[in-house]
């Protein structure tokens, strides 16, 4: 039996670890979640007022639409997605080598460049944590 | 050139993406993502934003085909896409847990489209269940919603011919409804 990605303890524990560093990188972070490509929230931090499942579903749709545009226009792989609004911005980055996306919401106190750098770094950190992971779940099949 | 916008709705795994691919004359725009919920539907990918295809009925008529993600968690896409649509093609897989209840739920969810142009139901994957069940489904639907006129077909979402029948029935419905509404508007205009 394979475990659903969003219930996988490996992704949850390492995701939590990676997210915990994000707030230091970008203090105006108000919400962040790692989600599966198909829109399930794996783990999230901050922003209790936000419905993390809905945020994850919307992030999944947004990501897929942006990917579709890049594909249609033959631009190669889509690297990240940014939604920049009056009161804040959302940055989305894929986690390389894993079926996960980081979606993070910042208030407009942060510059978009800084938020993007922080989000990319956090996604890379998760990738590193996962390659180092040797938990009980990681037994060879 | 006149144009119609048709929305493909229904649960995950019913065949919305498959149907749009079977019908479309252009390369379909799709937003498939790795499906991590194999319990809900055992298929490798699932739609997370939309499908888009086009078909020319004749030289003067184009139909735009939009598909939604089936899962409730994507219902914000349902409202975005329903806004532009004139009618809905509701696909329900016959091998689902409760296909009749599911169909009724979706009719209620997209009732605005029924009123705007119409809904046609396609019962897919019917080859995977005993045949006698299908008539039952159609009857139960009629019992549950006696005032609502919704044609029910069994159809294979992979078949261009099957899907064309459903689509043309729906388009005819939409055109009829639009003609009736136009003539009503005209006669009430005259009365004033
Ligand atoms: N056996 C059988 N398979 C079908 C029929 N209609 C659709 N399918 C399959 O059911 C699956 C439907 O998946 P998909 O199109 O992704 O469903 P969606 O979630 O509604 O978009 C595909 O694997 C189709 O090939 C049918 O009438 N019979
Ligand atoms: Mg689909």
Can you walk through the features of this model?
Chain A contains 4 helices and 5 strands. Chain A has one domain: Beta-Lactamase, CATH 3.30.450. Chain A is 41% helix and 25% strand. Chain A has a 5-stranded antiparallel sheet, with helices on both faces. Chain B has 6 helices and 7 strands, in the order βαβββαβααβαβα. Chain B has helices at residues 16-23, 75-82, 99-109, 111-116, 132-144, 160-191, and strands at residues 2-9, 29-34, 45-58, 61-67, 87-93, 119-124, 152-154. In chain B, helix 3 (99-109) packs parallel to helix 5. The mean pLDDT of chain B is 92. The interface between A and B is medium-sized, with 23 and 21 residues. Magnesium ion (MG) binds at residues 16-17, 47, 67 of chain B.
Helices and strands, with pairings:
The complex is a heterodimer of chains A (141) and B (192).
Chain A: H1 9-20, H2 22-25, E1 29-36, E2 41-45, H3 52-72, E3 80-85, E4 88-95, E5 100-107, H4 112-132
Antiparallel strand pairs in A: 1-2, 1-5, 3-4, 4-5
Chain B: E1 2-9, H1 16-23, E2 29-34, E3 45-58, E4 61-67, H2 75-82, E5 87-93, H3 99-109, H4 111-116, E6 119-124, H5 132-144, E7 152-154, H6 160-191
Parallel strand pairs in B: 1-4, 1-5, 5-6, 6-7
Antiparallel strand pairs in B: 2-3, 3-4
Helix pairs in contact in B: 3-5
The structure holds guanosine-5'-diphosphate and magnesium ion.
């Amino acid at each position: 039996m394979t475990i659903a990605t969003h219930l996988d303890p490996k992704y949850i524990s390492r995701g939590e670890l990676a997210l915990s560093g994000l707030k230091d990188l970008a203090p105006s972070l108000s919400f962040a979640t790692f989600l599966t490509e198909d829109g399930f929230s794996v783990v999230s931090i901050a922003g209790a007022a936000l419905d993390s499942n809905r945020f994850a579903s919307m992030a999944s749709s947004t990501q897929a639409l942006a990917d579709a545009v890049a594909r249609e226009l033959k631009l190669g792989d889509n690297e990240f997605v940014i939604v920049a609004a009056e009161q804040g911005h959302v940055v989305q980055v894929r986690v390389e080598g894993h079926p996960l996306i980081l979606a993070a919401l910042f208030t407009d106190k942060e510059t978009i460049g800084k938020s993007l750098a922080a989000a990319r770094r956090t996604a890379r950190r998760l990738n590193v944590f996962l390659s180092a992971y040797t938990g009980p779940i990681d037994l060879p099949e | 050139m006149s144009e119609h916008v048709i929305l493909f709705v229904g649960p995950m795994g019913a065949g919305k993406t498959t149907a749009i691919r079977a019908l479309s004359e252009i390369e379909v725009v799709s937003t498939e993502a790795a499906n991590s919920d194999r319990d809900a539907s055992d298929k490798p990918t699932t739609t997370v934003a939309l499908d888009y295809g086009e078909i020319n009925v004749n030289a003067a008529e184009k139909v735009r085909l939009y598909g939604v993600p089936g899962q409730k968690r994507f219902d914000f896409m349902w409202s975005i896409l329903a806004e532009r649509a004139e009618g809905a093609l509701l696909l329900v897989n016959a091998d689902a847990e409760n296909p009749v209840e599911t169909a009724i739920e979706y009719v209620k969810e997209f009732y605005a489209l029924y009123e705007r142009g119409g809904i046609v139901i396609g019962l897919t994957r019917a080859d995977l269940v005993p045949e006698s069940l299908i008539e039952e489904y159609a009857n139960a639907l009629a019992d549950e919603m006696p005032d609502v006129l919704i044609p029910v077909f069994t159809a294979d979402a992979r078949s261009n011919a099957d899907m064309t029948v459903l689509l043309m029935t729906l388009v005819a419905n939409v055109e009829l409804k639009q003609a009736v509404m136009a003539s009503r508007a005209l006669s009430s205009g005259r009365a004033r």
